[in-house]
Write a structure and sequence with these properties.
single chain, alpha/beta, seven-stranded mixed β-sheet, 6 helices, about 25% helix
């Protein structure tokens, strides 16, 4: 099975790439073929010439557009992503410290999509305290009282065709809101939370994307 790894690193974020690539090669999906899709404005970076690395140009954007346009950036690699069986996006500043395998690959019952829960809200079941977008008329808006989880934008993926379908829909929603001068509260993360509101993705435990030195009850372990 072939798995695509989506890595968006414009501007200074390319500084994290070397550690990301080295640790992903060792620990991430070790029993499967991997291909890395680096979406960047940088011409020179480590391992660029490696056969499992493909580069796609995307300009460095100012905030908040850098966060809002992640789905647009991902679609620059659409044709190559669709050649993979599955694909995953990880935040640029992540590194891997233990083995991660098929346990985060979703099945049909998950609509072939997976996303990580935010460690900050892992033990909080009061959805009124989740930082959902509440902007009237925004595609990211979640009605008061709805929602079971707060999801993070730093780790998500799934079957490649379903993932690209999601990115295309969320990119369209984002652009429609921008045209109306609406900015979702937490940008791509807000759109992802709204997209999965009525879906049943595979929920990845926050220990797979735990901020350094954090300890959260229920998320013990090295992953």
């Amino acid at each position: 099975m072939k798995i695509g790894i989506i890595y968006i690193a414009t501007g200074r974020y390319i500084c994290f790439w070397k550690e990301f690539y080295k640790t992903a090669k060792k620990f991430l999906f070790p029993s499967h073929e991997k291909e890395f899709f680096v979406i960047t404005d940088n011409e020179h970076f480590d391992f660029k010439e490696n056969p499992d690395v493909k580069t796609f140009y995307y300009p460095k954007l100012s905030w908040p557009m850098a966060g809002l346009m992640k789905f647009d950036a991902t679609l620059k690699a659409k044709n190559e992503i669709l050649k993979c069986d599955y694909c995953y996006y990880f935040n640029a500043n992540m590194k891997f410290i233990d083995y991660i395998g098929d346990e985060i690959i979703p099945k049909e019952e998950h609509e072939n999509l997976a996303i990580c829960k935010w460690a900050s809200y892992f033990n909080n079941h009061n959805n009124l305290e989740f930082p959902y977008d509440r902007t009237p008329g925004c595609w990211a808006n979640i009605p008061m009282g709805e929602g079971e989880h707060y999801l993070m934008a730093g780790l998500h993926g799934g079957k490649s065709d379903k993932y690209i379908e999601m990115c295309e829909e969320l990119n369209a929603r984002t652009n429609e809101d921008i045209a109306k001068n609406l900015i979702a509260k937490f940008h791509d993360e807000s759109y992802l939370n709204r997209y999965f509101l009525y879906k049943k993705p595979l929920l990845i435990n926050p220990r797979y994307a735990m901020p350094e030195k954090w300890k959260v009850k229920g998320c013990e372990g090295h992953k």
